[in-house]
Amino acid sequence: MDRKVQVEEFFCDNEESSGEKANLDQENAAIEHEFSSPWDDNDLILVVEDQKLHVHRSILKMTSPVFKAMLSSNFKGKDANEITLPGKKVNEFVDFLRQIYPLLDGEITLKNIKYIYRLADEYQMAKVMKDCRMFLFSVTKTKENTIEMLMLAQDIKAEEARQQCYDVLKKMTLTELESLEGFSELDRQSMQVLVLPRVKRLQECMKRILPEFLGSLDALVYLWCHDENKYKMHGAPSTCPKHRIYSSGSSRNINPNLYKLYERIKCNTCKGMFSQMAMNAKGYISPSKTYLSENIVSILEEIVDLTK
């Protein structure tokens, strides 16, 4: 091999080794914490990822039924000075231990709440689990973060925080919900709470609107077929001066303006006109026994609410 190539490879290998050593030193430095060395007469060592965590039996037994059983007289390792906990991550376990030591500032955040709760659940630490739920409840829920908050609430069984998320999401349309990242990953309970009531309400609304719609068509046909419709319908209704209906010689635009539609249905004068029409539309017999009724106003308002 060419000597120049060998020298270059040597320096490359040394640079890689130095880089790996530097990364390892940074990792080791990053995991220095309150439990790294003996303190306050600790009497037990937990080994996590080959790291020794110096802890106190009394605190573990007092806060966890699982640790209490492990350290009891009936457990084969009760007198062991070290207990290895496989499958755990040292940084997560340190954050977890901070929650049970009264003098340590163990902060629950959105970054650590999931694994702290998981470990608290494993070791049956009810207070830590409750603290996790209380923290999630305290977080402000917005359209932007609610799906993430709801998924966390599902994971840690935080029913109050879950309800907060529902309150935000129920104000959004199904189209808006579907566009949110993570919406399709919600559990069955959340899907039922968010979607099922809307479907049921829409179904009931359609049951109410169908006879009104067909009755309106019958009324229209009746008016269309009689010259003296003012007499037949027991007087013409008072029209709304703001939303006038007028004849036009040009072709009509059949694309509805939803904003104008909502505005008109909210207009008290228009609603009065619709009610007056329903009350006066009594001079005919519908073959399907369906008639325009005063329910038309409340139905229109519900449809607006459902479609916005």
From TrEMBL:
InterPro entries: BTB/POZ_dom, SKP1/BTB/POZ_sf. It comes from the Eukaryota. Residues 42-101 form the BTB domain. PANTHER family: BTB DOMAIN-CONTAINING PROTEIN (PTHR22744:SF17), HELIX LOOP HELIX PROTEIN 21-RELATED (PTHR22744). This is Speckle-type POZ protein-like.
